[in-house]
Amino acid sequence: xxxxxxxxxxxxxxxxxxxxxxxxxxxxxxxxxxGSTSRCPGCGTASRRVHSRYNRHLFDLPIAGxxxxxxxxxxxLRCEATACGRRIFAxxxxxSVLTPWARRTGRLEGLVHHLGLALGGRxxxxxxxxxxxxxxxxxxxxxxxxxxxxQAPPPTVIxxxxxxxxxxHRYGTIICDLERRRPICLLPxxxxxxxxxxxxxxxxxxxxxxxxxxxxxxxxxxxLPNAVQVADRWHLMENASHAFLDAVRKSMRQIRSAIxxxxxxxxxxSAAERLQYEGYLRREEVNAAVSALAREGIAIKEIVRRxxxxxxxxxRILRDQRGDVFRLRESSLESYLPWxxxxxxxxxxxxxxxxxxxxxxxxxxxxxxxxxxxxRRRRADQINADTLSRIPSARTISRLMTVSRDTLTxxxxxxxxxxxTGVPALIEAREIIAAFHLMISRKTEGDLCAWIERGRPSLVxxxxxxxxxxxNAVRAAITSGWSNGQxxxxxxxxxxxxxxxxxxxxxxxxxxxxxGSTP
Length: 519
What we know:
By secondary structure, the chain is an alpha/beta fold.
């Protein structure tokens, strides 16, 4: 037979209920301690000599949709130890039930802590108000900060990666325990010295999974020389694809010559394309000036000082990575261009009419997009039909050369064929990058050295040389089952927590919320 619910089960352990009454939307409950003795906080001597009593007001979990205030009758006791300097002390209780000077019971404090972890300050305070919990947003954050992060066992396999306090300005570092699948530490920056200092305190770490950045590689090599470093496979694949895109950018002049688009007619350009073309002409002037200084043998540092441009920009110019004319996103008309060309050839040249007919086929763009295309086409017919072909961006050409031929339109197929005929070095670069992707996916580590030798004289030589410098970590990435993908997932969670606090959370609060809320 089930036991009846007693009123004493509704109050914290170690107390007895002496009375209760409602007070509007609040319930006040009188309680009294059941203990006969208490230990002095100064010397630890147990005492039962009562000096006096006082009332202590505490908030507790709500009951029946009403907030609860506990009015506890607490004793003051005399310390009987002669050597103790504390003569009178207040009665102490189990820390899990009630801590000294606390205004909330232990069980309410735990609920407030979990609300702060899950929702943060203002959202947590708003939700707590609905739960009839009297707590402010500042209190929620103070509780989260005070409790800090749970103690984690020493890790042996970690993932380390950077995350953005503010993109392109300031970065921090996240460290994850890959075996237990949880974050364990946040560092304030991504400097090698900071990471090295933390890693030096963890000599038991055997495997470090990281991205391709040199700072973490240097820190791990100095602090843990015997640990195995594993390059992240996703970053390897992404770096390979970016290397091919850089190869296309270096070859843009040859590509424009191959597809017959060396001459650009400004009258055929839209307003946005004209702005980009003018920017391209300004970039060409800067490129020519920097290249002339480099041909004279002037060091990069001196070029930076003379021109006032950044070191990264000078590097990109000398690597011929600024030859792209247009960097437009794919137009919403791309999939409808064959139909538009056919209609134009049939004599239907009214932009508004073409737009209305396109709407019936599912086109969701504006009238201006179609009329602007019609205007450009009409001008091209009047000036020179050979200059109609639009110069694709480097990113577009890179995509067209790497996707399946079955997905390309006729015009795209012709463009790719012209590029491959005019710039055969890009075919070799594409095959080298495809071989690297295949080596990573199939985990064929034995082909790595041969691949590096093949890639050194090609357009992706810089990527091949980078793989050679980091060959041990790349080889471990191919053969090992560990990867840094978990750290990327935790960074996504960290971004969510940071945005919940409007980007203003300090490192201790971010760490407490991220690590404390991870099961």
